[in-house]
């Protein structure tokens, strides 16, 4: 009996910690979709780029020596954010802006077909470019605490749960970043103009909001956020230039679960995906973990198509 | 303040404006009336820059607007209150008004403008934290006008402010516009299908038909014109 409870609590705790990382990833993707209505198929590959940037920054700057090999990998993940913000900002300015925002009026399907092809193309370029630059041997950021755990005794020592230290710190950072982002989006003038541009591009222009600039910031920010999430996982999971494929599916499932375009919803969606994935391991073989995600995903889409936290809102 | 010279504009291959010339002087209230599809909304969008002018010239306070992108024009002092209100539905009433104050002048005068808008439209005070998408049509129109005023504009452009509103509500909006004009001394350019009400409040009017100015003059002259009386005033 205790073994069963122990197994469940262990899976739940692993799921919540991993899910917080997924949640942060989903928030980045959701921000871009929510503000720009762009389905970014290259999102996972931008995350991969972020993981490699974190990996190389860690080595180049000697972060392990400066901050210790417990904190170093987290610092590397956070430092990858400005680099990836710049990459996203430039990708939007040079490429994505041609098929989004104020220019889509003239394009077929409001530019969605062109966006699809463009972001798929970007995805392929990032994957192949990553392979040329970084090779295909799996790497990870060395961390002292990625296999250390706190032992938590429950029920007078009958039930013991192990909390992975790297995952716990990573989850705490992820939650703090989501809270910070929500604050920026709801309270700051920048956040309000992003939401205004998301609601109605033309009216935003009539207010004098530079919508193209808002989109560049959004794309940069969305990619930077997801890159940090990837960087936080880069000390626990070895990765290759093709890592984006594994995660982009999880990200889309999480974003749709939480309700398309809802920032907070995307976080809860990602968290839920983590929990489902880990708990299903109790019942299913490891290879079927992602199947469980999609079964729940289909159920939600079937029963509550606007997502768990999504609003049924009319767009003017 | 605003000068349009032989303006041509349209969408894709279809021309909508076919040589429109129009003047608005400082402090004037000018109405542009005309039937559906005459190009009234396109005229406004061309002034705001969301539709590009093909040929012709737009000058605002002496500045040629041809190379000024749409997002810069509000900063010169043009406030466009668009047809169908086009609020930001997922933002609150207050946040919508705040977005109006994106211009430097709007931020400078924010407290004063907000107090005036809430004074002119007291119902918005109660609704300030409500999502704009959940308001009634009349209240949405009040937010749209307030949002335009929040930018501290030199020129307020109103596109069909009475559209879709019950007659009593439309009347209230027109009455408020007259009041706002009196108190704020604003220059107003109004586009309307309700010709009688529009000419009532305006100093001067233009009749736009099929992309051309068919008639122009002081409002008394237009109201006495046989063509206007027959076609628009139902007399």
Automatic annotation (TrEMBL), chain A:
Output one GO BP term: amino acid transport
Q: Which UniProt keywords apply?
A: Amino-acid transport, Cell membrane, Membrane, Transmembrane, Transmembrane helix, Transport
**Where in the cell?**
Cell membrane
Q: Which residues cross the membrane?
A: 20-39, 46-68, 74-92, 168-186, 217-237, 249-275, 282-303
Topological category with respect to the lipid bilayer: Multi-pass membrane protein
Identify the CDD domains for this entry: TM_PBP1_LivH_like (cd06582)
The entry's cellular-component GO terms read: plasma membrane
Keyword Isomerase: yes or no? no
Query: Mainly resides where?
Result: membrane
GO MF term set: transmembrane transporter activity
Q: Which PANTHER family match?
A: AMINO ACID ABC TRANSPORTER PERMEASE PROTEIN, BRANCHED-CHAIN AMINO ACID TRANSPORT SYSTEM PERMEASE PROTEIN LIVH
Family per UniProt?
Belongs to the binding-protein-dependent transport system permease family. LivHM subfamily.
What's the name of the protein? Branched-chain amino acid transport system permease protein
Its source organism is Muricoccus pecuniae
From TrEMBL, chain B:
Q: Does the keyword Transcription regulation apply?
A: no
Q: Which InterPro entries has this protein been placed in?
A: AAA+_ATPase, ABC_transporter-like_ATP-bd, ABC_transporter-like_CS, BCAA_Transport_ATP-bd_LivF, P-loop_NTPase
SMART domains named in the record: AAA
Identify the residues that the record assigns to the ABC transporter domain, covering every copy.
2-235
Any one biological process term the GO annotation gives: L-amino acid transport
Provide the GO MF annotations for this entry.
Answer: ATP binding; ATP hydrolysis activity; branched-chain amino acid transmembrane transporter activity
Q: What Gene3D superfamilies would the database entry show?
A: P-loop containing nucleotide triphosphate hydrolases
Which keywords fit this entry according to its UniProt record? Answer: Amino-acid transport, ATP-binding, Nucleotide-binding, Transport
Alphabetical list of PROSITE patterns matching this protein:
ABC_TRANSPORTER_1, ABC_TRANSPORTER_2
- Keyword Metal-binding among UniProt keywords: no
Q: Member of which family?
A: Belongs to the ABC transporter superfamily.
UniProt name for this protein: Branched-chain amino acid transport system ATP-binding protein
Q: Which organism is it from?
A: Muricoccus pecuniae
């Amino acid at each position: 009996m205790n073994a069963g409870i122990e197994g469940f609590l262990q899976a739940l705790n692993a799921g919540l910690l991993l899910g917080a990382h997924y949640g942060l990833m989903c928030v980045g993707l959701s921000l871009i979709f929510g503000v720009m209505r762009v389905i970014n198929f290259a999102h996972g590959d931008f995350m991969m780029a972020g993981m490699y940037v974190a990996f190389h920054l860690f080595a180049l700057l000697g972060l392990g020596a400066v901050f210790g090999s417990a904190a170093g990998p987290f610092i590397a993940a956070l430092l990858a954010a400005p680099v990836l913000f710049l990459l996203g900002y430039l990708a939007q300015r040079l490429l994505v802006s041609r098929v989004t925002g104020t220019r889509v009026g003239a394009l077929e399907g409001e530019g969605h077909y062109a966006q699809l092809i463009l972001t798929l193309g970007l995805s392929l370029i990032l994957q192949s470019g990553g392979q040329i630059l970084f090779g295909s041997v799996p790497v990870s950021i060395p961390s002292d605490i990625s296999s250390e755990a706190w032992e938590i005794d429950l029920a007078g020592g009958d039930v013991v749960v192990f909390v992975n230290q790297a995952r716990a710190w990573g989850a705490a950072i992820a939650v703090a970043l989501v809270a910070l982002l929500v604050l920026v989006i709801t309270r700051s003038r920048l956040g309000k103009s992003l939401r205004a541009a998301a609601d109605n591009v033309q009216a935003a222009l009539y207010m004098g909001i530079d919508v193209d600039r808002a989109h560049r910031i959004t794309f940069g920010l969305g990619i930077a956020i997801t890159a940090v999430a990837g960087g936080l996982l880069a000390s626990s999971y070895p990765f290759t230039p093709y890592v984006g494929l594994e995660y982009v599916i999880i990200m889309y499932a999480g974003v749709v679960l939480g309700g398309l375009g809802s920032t907070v919803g995307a976080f809860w969606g990602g968290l839920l995906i983590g929990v489902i994935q880990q708990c299903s391991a109790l019942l299913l073989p490891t290879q079927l973990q992602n199947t469980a995600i999609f079964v729940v995903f289909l159920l939600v889409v079937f029963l509550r198509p606007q997502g768990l936290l999504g609003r049924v809102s009319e767009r003017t | 303040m605003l000068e349009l010279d032989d303006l041509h504009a349209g969408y894709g291959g279809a021309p909508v404006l076919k040589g429109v010339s129009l003047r608005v002087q400082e402090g004037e209230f000018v109405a542009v009336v005309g039937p559906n599809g005459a190009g009234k909304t396109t005229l406004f969008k061309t002034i705001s820059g969301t539709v590009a002018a093909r040929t012709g010239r737009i000058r605002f306070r002496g500045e040629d607007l041809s190379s000024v992108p749409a997002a810069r024009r509000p900063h010169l002092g043009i406030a466009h209150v668009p047809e169908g209100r086009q609020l930001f539905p997922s933002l609150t009433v207050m946040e919508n008004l705040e977005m109006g104050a994106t211009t430097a002048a709007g931020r400078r005068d924010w407290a004063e403008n907000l107090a005036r808008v809430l004074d002119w439209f007291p119902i918005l005070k109660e609704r300030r934290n409500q999502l704009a998408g959940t308001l009634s049509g009349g209240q949405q129109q009040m937010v749209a006008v307030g949002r335009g005023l929040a930018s501290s504009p030199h020129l307020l452009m109103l596109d069909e402010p009475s559209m879709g509103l019950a007659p009593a509500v439309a009347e209230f909006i027109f009455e408020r516009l007259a009041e706002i004009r009196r108190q704020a001394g604003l220059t107003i350019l109004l586009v309307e299908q309700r010709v009688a009400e529009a000419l009532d409040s305006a100093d001067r009017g233009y009749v736009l038909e099929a992309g051309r100015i068919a008639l122009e003059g002081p409002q008394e002259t237009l109201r006495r014109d046989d063509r206007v009386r027959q076609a628009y005033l139902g007399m």
